[in-house]
Specification:
Helix content: 55-70%
Radius of gyration: 19 Å
Structural class: mainly alpha
CATH superfamily of the largest domain: Winged helix-like DNA-binding domain superfamily/Winged helix DNA-binding domain
Shape: elongated
Strand content: 5-15%
Low-confidence stretches: none
CATH class of the largest domain: Mainly Alpha
Number of domains: 2
CATH topology of the largest domain: Arc Repressor Mutant, subunit A
């Protein structure tokens, strides 16, 4: 499922991925506590996500509960691939080189990347 989700909408999705299902009030309460948003803003974001079919709503015992329609893993995979495609012609190496060149890699990051490369190499 490919859905374009804005940055603010993704923060609402994160709240659901952490704990779902949630009521409107539970989502609003969590968003206000974490981001300082007003209730109207949160409700607008929920409605946008419903229109985009990123959320499922169901009525249970007089309360509307919301669940995510897509997993966080699928969302991260799609967003990551979109970034790679837009900025690096779908190639991972230039992305890593860009970040490494811009801010450098710590010894720990280099070791983790090397271990990841070894692990991937063993799997193929």
């Amino acid at each position: 499922m490919s859905v374009r989700i804005s940055g603010a909408e993704s923060l609402v999705m994160e709240l659901l991925w952490e704990s779902e299902p949630r009521t409107t009030d539970q989502i609003v309460e969590a968003a206000v506590a974490r981001h300082g948003w007003g209730a109207a803003t949160v409700k607008t974001l929920i409605n946008r996500l419903l229109k985009k079919k990123a959320l499922i709503s169901e009525r249970i015992e007089g309360r509307t509960l919301y669940r995510s329609r897509l997993s966080r893993e699928d969302y991260v995979a799609a967003e990551s691939q979109s970034l790679l495609d837009r900025l690096f012609d779908g190639q991972l190496t230039p992305l890593v080189a860009h970040y490494a060149g811009r801010r450098g890699l710590t010894a720990e990051e280099r070791a983790r990347l090397m271990a990841l490369i070894e692990e991937i190499g063993d799997d193929q």
